[in-house]
Amino acid sequence: MYHVTIECEESQFRVKIDDKYIEKAFPYRYPLEDVTVIKLNHGTLGNKWIALSWEPTPAQPSSIEKFANLPPISQVKDLGDTTFGPGTKIEAKAIFKKGTAKFSINLLKQTGFYIFHLDFRPYPHGGVIVMNTRPNSNWEKEVRAELPHLQDGQLILVVIECGEKEFKVKVNDDYIEKTFPYRYPLEDVKKVGVEHGTNENKWVSLNW
Known about the structure:
By secondary structure, the chain is mainly beta. It is 3% helix and 39% strand.
């Protein structure tokens, strides 16, 4: 008699036979929560499954629920002794609220000196992402990319990747179609700032 256990982990299935894991795991290809039926195939020659059971997983708060009640983060964080360079990643999470005209992340040399301005302008205010620099009181030439459609209350994960010569941006694990070349030295970044927007739109985490 065999005892088979299928364990549902964060991103994959793991299988045990008689308390020993098989050597391979199997990554989820479709949402685990879409499972509605469990079917057994018995085989031939009298082979048969004789028991089937499962343990319900206690309800866990969704990502949105975890972050929705957090207060907005401070608008500016100093890097301290940290120096940005190729390979640096800046990760931020925001709760999007319908009606906000714009919200942004800014890499700053000093107050007013934008080494990288990443501005989100949702529909109906453009549905675009605008990237730019501003070394003084004047904005320079902007680069625009399409902003994916956002749902009211949606949790947004933004990652800024610092490459050898340019910034690359991911929104919810997908790269936007444009990159942004460095116009000023990356190591000159001393602060990272955010603009929250309106209608309770807010950035709730910022790390690098």
